[in-house]
Write a structure and sequence with these properties.
Elements lengths: L8 H12 L11 H10 L11 H13 L3 H10 L6 H4 L2 H27 L14 H4 L9 H14 L3 H16 L7 H4 L3 H20 L11 H13 L4 H13 L6 H4 L16 H22 L4 H9 L4 H20 L7 H8 L11 H13 L5 H9 L8 H8 L6 H19 L11 H4 L15 H43 L4 H20 L11 H15 L1
Length: about 550
């Protein structure tokens, strides 16, 4: 018999027929919903006989189903295939309201139980109370998306805590997206299966984003979950508003992210020359964080001077520590995406220029990322190479980074000269005792400690002074030898290039005049930095300085 119009089909009709003939039927969680709907459809009400099927099912619902959260979820799941009758008799709304009310009751009881555990006078078992999201939140994963949205909206309106809502959302999203992972796009791109999977992913992600708690810098939603949602949203081509919402949430708590959270694959279907990672999304996320920092500056203008000094001057303040974390995160991200051969220099430069000057105390991480990018992209334009290296503050490079940069042939000549110049100034100030002016690679150089006593801080013993002078002399000799080796290599390359070009173009007068000007500029640079050109004799001034330093070290 075809009984498709009856809610529950032939099974519900058979149970109703047995009930009419006086055969005892057992009402359970698995059949109470369809029996209630079938009784309404067949008009088995109290109008015709007492204790009819409708009354029996209502009694079971009130006594067994509605007071219990798990039972209500199980019956609500059975109502998914009983629409529209289940909606007409208001069964779905009653079950959803029962779940929301009982969840809030359990939350209150759990809070009181935790409060009792805080008082040692009451002798209770040392058992951690179980939160509602631990024992019933996972049961919501059996519901379809529509019913889940309605349940979560109801519990939010009843006042369920945001951390519990976050746990429920994470569990439901994980279970719903299992099996919907899009496979290799080159294999199934454009197929019906691929389009269907993308559509399901897109619907789930957009629904989950709409149910997330309120945006805040101290959100209860974990960063890893937000990152996975954004990756899925980009892969499934979700709406722009959905992706913007996720980017905003990630930017609010960017200081809690790690590298894996911001390595977002790009949606480059069918494009073999596309980039590996979505750098534009990361650029917007970091911009959101920096704009929030500027908003905090506006708010901080209303504070007193002492609090303002704490916010800006101390590297351990919450604001400064967050900026330092984000700067290290960005440098690590740049080093990772620099390995992508399809990444355009303009996008890499935009990310490198994003942070303000005060965000980095040491520029070694940025220098490493730039060096990797130049190594992977050897054919970029000289203007882009110069602009990229301009993002590095040579004064914030450590001694190891300076030594590497001075010998790095991938860097422009201007930057190599600048590194040598600042390194020489640092060594000169170290010789003169000015350690705090150009001391790179330490936090104390950016935040020097003040002396509390009235005496000068330079009052040290002659023994310590002698040891420090000898150590500084050794470092100076090593640095001068290293610079001379570097300059010798440059001079050899210059001579070989000149000979080769003259050999190929013997009448090239323009090149000869250019090489003469370059030699004059190099010699003038040596004289400015108290260095003599290679092969020249030492003058009287340099001999006098060397003898004075030698006498000083011997004394």
């Amino acid at each position: 018999m075809n009984l498709s119009l009856i809610p529950g089909g032939p099974e519900a009709f058979e149970l109703a027929a047995k009930f009419c003939y006086g055969i005892n039927i057992e009402i359970t969680l698995s059949n109470v919903a369809m029996l209630r709907c079938a009784a309404h459809f067949l008009e088995m009400t109290e109008e015709f006989v007492q204790k009819n099927l409708e009354a029996r099912t209502e009694a079971y619902l009130k006594d067994t189903v509605l007071p219990n959260i798990s039972n209500s979820i199980s019956v609500l799941h059975r109502c998914e295939c009983l629409s529209p009758v289940s909606e007409e008799i208001n069964l779905v709304n009653r079950l959803i309201n029962a779940i929301a009310n009982n969840a809030c009751k359990e939350q209150l009881a759990s809070g009181l139980l935790k409060l009792d555990h805080n008082f040692p006078m009451k002798t209770m078992a040392n058992i951690e109370p179980e939160t509602p999201s631990d024992w019933w939140g996972k049961s919501l994963s059996v519901l379809n998306l529509e019913f889940f949205q309605r349940v979560l909206t109801a519990v939010k309106s009843k006042g369920l805590k945001q951390d519990m809502i976050s746990k429920i959302l994470i569990n439901y999203t994980h279970n719903s997206l299992q099996g919907l992972v899009i496979r290799d796009p080159h294999i199934v791109r454009g197929s019906l299966l691929d389009m269907e999977l993308q559509k399901k992913q897109r619907v789930i992600v957009e629904a989950m984003v709409s149910l997330l708690p309120t945006q805040s810098r101290r959100s209860s939603v974990p960063m890893a979950f937000l990152s996975s949602l954004l990756k899925t949203a980009i892969a499934s081509s979700a709406s722009t508003s959905c992706r913007s919402d996720l980017e905003r949430r990630i930017g609010l708590q960017l200081d809690q992210a790690i590298l894996e959270d911001i390595l977002i694959p790009a949606n480059s279907y069918g494009n073999n020359h596309g980039t590996m990672y979505d750098t534009e999304s990361i650029l917007r996320i970091f911009s959101i964080f920096l704009n929030l920092d500027e908003d905090d500056d506006e708010d901080n203008r209303m504070r007193d001077e002492s609090e303002m000094a704490y916010d800006f001057d101390s590297p351990g303040s919450p604001k400064q520590s967050s900026i330092l974390k984000v700067s290290k995160l960005l440098d690590t991200y740049l080093a990772e995406v620099a390995l992508d051969t399809n990444l355009l220099p303009s996008k890499f430069i935009a990310l490198a220029e994003l942070l303000p000057d005060h965000a980095r105390i040491i520029s070694d991480g940025l220098y490493r990322a730039v060096d990797i990018f130049l190594k992977v992209h050897p054919n970029i334009k000289d203007s882009e190479r110069y602009r990229l290296c301009k993002t590095i503050d040579c004064q914030k490079l450590s001694q190891e980074a300076c030594s590497h940069a001075a010998q790095n042939e991938r860097l422009p000549v201007q930057m190599a000269v600048q590194v040598l110049y600042f390194e020489q100034i640092r060594l000169r100030n170290a010789m003169n005792g000015g350690h705090n002016q150009f001391f790179f690679g330490t936090i104390n150089s950016q935040f020097p400690q003040r002396s509390s006593s009235g005496a000068g801080s330079g009052a040290i013993s002659p023994r310590d002074n002698y040891a420090s002078v000898r150590r500084e002399n050794r470092e100076l000799k090593l640095e001068v030898a290293r610079m001379r080796m570097r300059l010798t290599d440059l001079e050899k390359d210059h001579v070989s290039m000149k000979q080769e070009l003259v050999r190929s173009h013997p009448a090239n007068k323009i090149f000869k005049s250019f090489t003469k000007k370059l030699s004059k500029q190099l010699n003038s640079l040596f004289r400015i930095n108290n260095l003599k050109p290679i092969g020249s004799k030492p003058n009287a001034e340099s001999r006098f300085l060397f003898q004075r330093r030698r006498r000083h070290s011997i004394s």
